[in-house]
Amino acid sequence: MEKCKAGVWIDHRKALIVTIVPAGESTAHIVSKVERQLRRSGDSPMKGRYAADQVPADDSRQKALSGELNIYYDAVIAALRNAESFVIFGPGEAKSELKRRLVKNKLGRRLSAVKTADKMTDRQFAAKVRDYFSAESG
Known about the structure:
Layout: E1 4-10, E2 14-21, E3 24-31, H1 58-80, E4 83-90, H2 94-104, E5 111-116, H3 122-137
Parallel strand pairs: 1-4, 4-5
Antiparallel strand pairs: 1-2, 2-3
């Protein structure tokens, strides 16, 4: 198995993973199925008659969101499993949530850093990951 380094740009909607090996690099996209604001079906309580069963309970909506996020983070972790070292970039909470899951899955030691970064193109992000690991080793 060839050792590699990886960088992840993540938010709640998608993850971009750049894997660097001595022979080159590759990129992968993982798209989440998380819908932040779940849509309600049926009549709006403001417009028509109101029935408690028409509006999903907040805890069931939160469980659905958490379940989708868990599936998404597990897919990202599976893509990172072979990396000897990786760095996480992202604009919001997702990077910290992924870090907690990595620690829970006993992959926290491989994590080099967690950094805040805005959206970038795939090429910009690949260059950022290359620069990060070349500065770290040099």
